[in-house]
Design brief:
Strand order of the largest sheet: 2-1-3-4-5
Radius of gyration: 21 Å
């Protein structure tokens, strides 16, 4: 039986008797541990990204799967990829137990169905060019474990992010990422340190993949979608800096071509 650290008692007690200041200081003390734990997982994160990039270059997709907080974080990361890097919403897909309604509301027993995760993937015509990453602090979520098991049976690359060592989910993952952050400040509340660590790792995975896929130039989001005035201004200033153009000229060029990268190619070509 593996050790379920995510359910172990908090290192703090009598929280209701603490002052607001002490609560905040102690939560922050626990949060400081997360980055160091994620650092230890970099070799596993690197392995997953290294396998992901060539698969996505060939048209493969990245799926995130989770329930509750973990599922929401996966959907969040996936939803930020199109506007940030200018790729379609089909490149990175977030699936959550219970469907989209579970993004705002708890869906009773949704995560306990061992078959539904695979069914959700089949709806997206998952195939052997794709990669599926399960996210579960506990490492035991049936929705995720069942999906990863079926993925491996069908020759689909699998990864996972968990806060417990040696979990059932990790045994179903080709590349398990274990970031053991220890007991939560509020016992069992994995939306705290575990969720913070998951968000950090998801940022690392998706950002490094998109950079390797050529969606960033220098250090700039040259493929971002121009969905508001702030982003149009940011893109315009990129062109001003890169091409030495007057602001109005740069903005007209940007709006004509729809992205910084396309405007640069057109102007220099």
């Amino acid at each position: 039986m593996f050790r379920k650290i995510t359910e172990e008692p908090s290192l703090y007690n009598h929280l209701e008797d603490m002052t607001v200041h002490d609560l905040l200081v102690d939560i922050n003390t626990e949060d400081k541990k997360v980055a160091f734990v994620v650092e230890k997982a970099i070799p596993q994160i690197e392995k997953l990204v290294t396998l992901l990039v060539p698969r996505m270059q060939k048209g493969g997709r990245l799926f995130y799967m989770g329930a509750g907080t973990s599922g929401r974080l996966g959907v969040l990361d996936a939803s930020e990829i199109p506007p940030t890097f200018g790729v379609s919403a089909n490149h990175v897909i977030g699936l959550i137990a219970g469907g989209d309604v579970a993004l705002r509301n708890a869906v009773e027993n949704a995560e306990d169905d061992t078959q539904q995760g695979w069914k959700d993937l089949v709806k997206h015509q998952v195939n052997t060019t794709d990669t599926v990453v399960g996210i579960a602090a506990s490492g035991t979520t049936p929705y995720v474990v069942g999906a990863l098991h079926e993925c491996r049976a069908h020759g689909i690359l699998t990864g996972c992010i968990t806060s417990n060592p040696g979990t059932p989910m990790a045994t179903e993952a080709d590349v398990p990422i274990e970031m053991v952050v220890g007991p939560e400040f509020v016992t069992g509340s994995s939306r705290m340190k575990s969720g913070t660590g998951q968000k950090m790792i998801l940022n690392m995975i998706s950002t490094s993949v998109m950079i390797r896929l050529g969606r960033v130039k220098g250090n700039k989001m040259v493929n971002m979608q121009l969905t508001n005035k702030k982003l149009v201004d940011r893109g315009t200033r990129m062109l001003v800096d890169e091409l030495g153009l007057e602001y109005g000229h740069a903005q007209r060029l940007l709006l004509m071509y729809g992205s910084v990268e396309k405007a640069l190619e057109a102007y220099k070509g």
